[in-house]
Request: fold
Amino acid sequence: MNHYKPPTKKPANRVDWSDPHLESLLRKTESWKLDNRGTFPPEEVQIHIGWAATVGKPALLVWERDQAMVLETRFTLQDGEHIRVDSHQGESIRTVWGVVIEGREGNRAEDQANGVHVYWLHVR
Reply:
C-alpha cells in the first residue's frame, strides 16, 4: 500500500502590471542606487592588468564573495580585461585572477570628487 501523495500545485499569483498602485510604487524605486560597499572592510590591494603585467597599480577591494569581487580604482579598466589581484596576508601574498565584468564611475559624492571607479570582477 502506497501512502505517497504528490504535492498539490498552487495557482501562480497573477500580477496586474498596469495597476496604478503598483506603477506608483515601482516609479518610487527608479532613482534608487544600491551601494553595498559599507558591509565589507576595505582592503588595499595591487592589481596587475593583463596576463603578462609585471607592474601593479593600487586599488581597494571593497567587497568579495564566492567568485565575485568589487574593486575601487582611480583609473579606468575595460570590460573583459584580465586582472590579477594581489593582497598581503601576513607574511604571504594571496593572488586571485579575475575578469572585469562591469564598471562605472562611483556614485558617492566622495567618489566623484576623487575620480573613483567601481568594478565588478568574476574570479576564476
Observations:
- The chain has a mean pLDDT of 87.
- Residues 20-29 form the longest helix (10 residues).
- Strands lie at 43-49, 57-65, 68-73, 82-89, 92-105, 117-123.
- The chain is about 15% helix and 40% strand.
